[in-house]
Amino acid sequence: MKLTSRAARRISAAAIAGTVILLPAVALASAGPAATAGTPASGARPARLVTAYVVNQGSGTVTPINTATGKPGKAIKVGNSPGAIAITPNGKTAYVVNAGTIFVTGHTVTPIRTATNTALKPIKVGILNVRVGANAIAITPNGETAYVTNSGGNTVTPINTATNTALKAIKVGSEPSAIAITPDGKTAYVTSGRGVVPINTATNTALKAIKVSADTIAITPDGKTAYVTNDANTVIPINTATNTALKAIKVGVGPGAIAITPDGKTAYVASHGSSPTFDGTVTPINTATNKAGKAIKADGGAIAITPDGKTIYVTNGASGTVTPIRAATNTVGKAIKVGSDPVASAITPDGMTAYVASAVSGTVTPINTSTNKAGKAIKVGDFPVSIAITP
Predict the structure, then answer these.
(1) Where are the beta strands (DSSP E) in 317-377?
(2) How confident is the model over 358-372, as pLDDT tens digits?
């Protein structure tokens, strides 16, 4: 199955929503509780265990990967047609959105207990959409609430993570897709047919919609500005203090994924380009001036940024590669060969490894970020579409 450009954009949005918070570096990783972190020095805290969770849409599973060894663990069965995934800030629970099928109900979210890699009871949410990447999930910084966009039901469902129960659905307009939450946790912003809808997370009420065309979204680390891509080949900044749209910024054709550097100084927007060549680009935007810099040649897929902000990795679906971009100069490095149709990526908290999920190949490729060399591909389930890594 080949992704449409719009589907690929929505996958990227879901990934961003789930992994926007980068936490301090760790030493070791694990795919399960049996792994050990070694013997710490006297008085030192034990190293944390870090796992990459890969959502396999075709097989209805999640594959945990031990990032210390690169070994996949036993696949975890979730629901039908899983897509987006997000992990709580404490790393204890991963939430997977299951769209169900056209003929079978099953619009659910499956919590996974990361200590044991076991799936818990599915949580029923609103009507989802079986299109690839059409549903998204984001978790508040305090880890208390997960918000799921119900693209087929025109709502957002809050989930109480302490009890894993769904709360009353919030109406937000037709086909909500991407969602992002401000760093202070006070407001969730949802893109939908009404524009961008802010949700007051204290009361779970939708506020007045910001009337702009909107697809994907990302918020600066200081929480002052949300950046929204749209089909008009622009990015619209939104002042979160007043919930007003600012002047549109021209970018490439077909903008999709957007990610912001940890220092908040630059937003990078990936555009897939126009048919039939799909000559994609990545546009850097100076967030202080909201001016677009010179477009960088890349295919315009998913974006991941290292925690130190020095390197941006962009997936190139057509060529089965990843383009590294040096942030200091906005110059591209040599393309890195991965699997066929890479659609999602995530970087370990220590910044040492980028993991790239390739849908058609059914693999995840680790990339050493210090050398930009690809390691041996890791076989996962059928049609992996998203990936998230524990803090």
Answers:
(1) 321-326, 331-332, 336-337, 342-347, 353-358, 363-368, 373-374
(2) 999 999 999 999 999
